[in-house]
Design brief:
Blueprint: H1 3-15, E1 23-25, E2 33-34, E3 40-50, H2 61-79, E4 82-92, H3 97-114, E5 117-125, E6 129-139, E7 154-158, H4 163-167, H5 178-188, H6 194-199, E8 206-210, H7 214-225, E9 228-232, H8 240-246, H9 250-256, E10 262-267, H10 269-273, H11 277-280, E11 283-290, E12 294-298
Parallel strand pairs: 4-5, 9-12
Antiparallel strand pairs: 1-2, 3-6, 4-6, 7-10, 7-11, 8-10, 9-11
Helix pairs in contact: 2-3, 5-8
Bound molecules: adenosine-5'-diphosphate, thiamine diphosphate and magnesium ion.
Length: 318
């Protein structure tokens, strides 16, 4: 199977998944063409996944297709953007039909589920690496940024934290318990918070998605905003499954493990008061923004230090 046959067989169908009026020209030409509606800004981001770093060696291709698009799409959610389309740069060691079928299946269900149509890509041979560029749009000037947090704002997170990080211990488990199966599901099939992000436009003062762990990602927000915060560790939303698996260590996972793709937002208290009940139910208040720079943790068990760091590809060395 040649390169063009591979594209036609496995990826062309995704380009036809669900027509988007915004994609004027998709797969097949030198570039795709996207039309930006009047009064909206284009929001775009690229993320790479490397075998052995972002996903295990010999990882299930269905999960890989889903996870790679979910991780990239989570950045759109963090900006409050509505999803439009994505491009895929795929480097493969070989054209294995079974692998490609699974990968295209996982990618296709993610693309339908998130409402992103495949608009183009690039296919090369080499070690397994994939990059996805996602495109969305947001009302002009209203994208949620990392830099808008102000002293007095509340710090909120969506969903539960630490599940996907805990799953790394069980990736090889032949007969996972129900609790293990729950955290594994959170690692294999993260769900970017697109609806929540879009609903927070005009409400949140800042937003980031948690790919590297709460401490690291909230740290980016505080730095970009020139403020600090105190987080009450006893308020962290932790799943029953995580608590039962990790016991006293659960909070440490909630603070510093990545891969959950939940949102961390800040919001002025007067806006929170009038926020729709349906939004409030998806979010947990974990702390408050302060003038004093840096992130302070309180209310945690002794197992939690204050020095947990997020994932840094070039950190830890010289
Ligand atoms: N090689 C690069 N060239 C230019 N900008 C980059 C590069 N790598 C990362 N960035 C930028 O640095 C910022 C932080 O990147 P990253 O930590 O990957 O964010 P995220 O967690 O949202 O994917 C982003 O604005 C991203 O566009
Ligand atoms: C097999 C495996 N080991 C470890 C991890 C943990 N991990 C690897 S990279 C990463 C952080 C996210 O990656 P990065 O490239 O920093 O993504 P971005 O910040 O651009 O979203 C995490 C938590 C994982 N996801 N899978
Ligand atoms: Mg990135």
């Amino acid at each position: 199977m040649g390169e063009f046959e591979l594209i036609r067989r496995y990826f062309q169908p995704l380009a036809e998944n669900h027509g988007s009026e915004a994609v004027v020209l998709g797969v097949g030409d030198d570039c795709a063409v996207q039309r930006i509606p009047e009064g909206r800004d284009l929001v775009f981001s690229i993320d790479t996944m490397v075998e052995g770093i972002h996903f295990p060696q010999e990882y299930c291709p269905d999960y890989l297709g889903w996870r790679a698009l979910a991780a990239a799409t989570s950045d759109l959610a963090a900006m409050g953007a509505a999803p439009v389309c994505f491009t895929l740069a795929l480097t493969l060691p070989e054209a294995n039909e079974q692998w490609l079928t699974g990968f295209a299946r996982g990618l296709s269900s993610a693309s339908e589920s998130f409402g992103l149509v495949l608009a183009g890509g690039d296919t090369t041979r080499g070690p397994l690496v994939l990059s996805m560029q996602v495109h969305g749009t947001v009302r002009r000037g209203e994208a949620l940024r990392r830099s808008g947090a102000r002293a007095g704002d509340l710090v909120l997170v969506s969903g539960t934290l630490g599940d996907a990080g805990a799953a790394l211990d069980f990736l090889e488990e032949p007969r996972p318990s129900d609790d293990m199966a729950f955290v594994l599901g959170r690692y294999h099939q993260p769900r970017p918070r697109l609806d929540l992000g879009a609903s927070m436009v005009g409400l949140a003062s800042s937003c980031i998605d948690i790919s590297d762990g709460l401490i690291a990602d909230l740290g980016h927000v505080l730095k970009a905003s020139g403020v600090g915060a105190t987080v009450d560790v006893s308020k962290l939303p932790l799943s029953a499954a995580l608590c039962s698996i990790k016991g006293i260590e659960a909070a440490r996972y909630g603070l510093s493990s990545g891969d959950d793709y939940e949102l961390c937002l800040t919001i002025p208290p007067e806006r929170w008061k009038v926020a729709p009940e349906a939004l409030k139910q998806q979010l947990t208040i974990i702390g408050a923004v302060e003038q004093n720079p840096g992130l302070r943790l309180r209310g945690g068990p002794d197992a939690v230090g204050n020095n947990a760091a997020g994932f840094d590809h070039f950190g830890g060395g010289s």
